[in-house]
Amino acid sequence: MSIGLSERRQWVLQSEIRNMSIECERIGGINLAQGVCDTEVPLVVRCGAQKAMDEGVNTYTHYAGLMELRAAIAHMYQRTYGIDVDPENEIIASAGSTGVFYCACLALLDPGDEVILFEPYYGYHVQTLVATGCVPTYVRMQPPDWTFFLKDLEDAITPKTRGIMVNTPANPSGKVFTQDELKLIADFAERYDLFVFTDEIYEHFLYGDTKHIPPMTLPGIRERTITISGVSKSFSITGWRVGYCICDERWSQTIGYFNDLVYVCAPAPLQIGVAKGLVELGDDYYRKLSIEYAAKREKICSALDHAGLTPCIPQGAYYVLADISRLPGKDSKEKVMHLLERTGVACVPGNAFYHDASGEDLARFCFAKEDQVLDEACRRLEDL
Questions:
Q1: Which domain holds residue 348?
Q2: What is the DSSP string of 100-148?
Q3: Which of 4, 66, 236, 261 has its CA 20 to 30 A from that of 321?
C-alpha cells in the first residue's frame, strides 16, 4: 500500500506532559504532570459565559475576537501596566496562547528561519516552530537562578535568526526575567533586527517581591514584540481556549487572517466570560491568587526537599523543577516512572525541556492543585 502518514507527522509527537498524564491515569495516581489548573473558576467568568449563551452569542465572531473582549484586554493592560493598547488594531484573540503563537509564526516567519529559545524550554514552543518549518536554537540557562549571559545570546545568533522567545514567568523553571535581563534582550533584538515573541500566560503567578515586566514596555522594542498571553491559568479555564496577542498593527491583520484560516475564532460565549472577568476582577483577585499559590509552592518544595529531591524554588508560574538524580533509572523518563510506581505521583521527565541530555536528572512538578489533592501528593512524596 503506497498511502501513509505525511512527513509532518514527526513534528507533532505527543508531549511527555500528556504521556505522563496518561500513565498517571492508568494507575489512578495524582497528576502533578500536566498544568491543568483544577482550582475554582471565578463566578463572574462562569456566569458571563452562561449569560452570553442564553442571549444567543453562539455564532462566529470577528476573526480578531469580539470587541468586548479586546476592549477588556486593553483595559487590563492600562490598569495593570499603564500601557495603552488599541483594541481595534493591536489585539488578536485566538484559540489559547498556543493557538495565537502558531498563527504568529505562520504570519511572521518563513521555513528555515531560526528562533532562539531559553532552555529549559516549554515543549509546545519548540513543536510549534518545527511544525511551521522554522528552526529552534537554544540558550542554556543555569540553575538554580536560571541565569544567562550576553555571550550565550551572541553564540546562538546566525544569519538565519529571525526571532527570540521570552517566556516569563517561565514554564518549567519558574524564572521571572528581571529588568536588566529584559533590557539585555531588547538591545540584542534591536541590534540584530529580531522579533521578540513572548509567552506571559503566568503573569499573575508571582511570589515574594517578584514583579512581572511585559517585555513590550522596554524602550524601543514595542513594534517588534508579539506579546502573547491569556487567562487560561489565572481563571482556571485551560479548556476554554481563549488567548490573545498584542502587537503592532503592521503584523496584527495577517496574524488575524491566519487565525481565521486555522481556528475561525475563539469560542464566542467564552470570550464574553473572559471579558467579564478581565473587567470585574481587580488587583485584589490577582494578589490573592499569588498568595494562595505561594502557599502551594511552599508545600511542594518542602515535600520535595524532605524526599531528597532538591527543588529549584520558582519565582513565578506554578511549576517546580527538582533534582531527581538519586532515583533509579538510566534517564529522566525511567526515574519519573519509578517515582510514579512507588508513590503514585506523576511528574514530567526533565528531558522534555532540553534538546540534549542535560535534563536527565530533573523533573517538573505542577502545584496548581486543590489543597487536599496537593497535600496527599506531598505526603506520598515525603514517604519516599
A1: 7-41+284-382
A2: HHHHHHHHH--TT-EEEEEES--HHHHHHHHHTT-EEEEEE-BTTTTB-
A3: 236
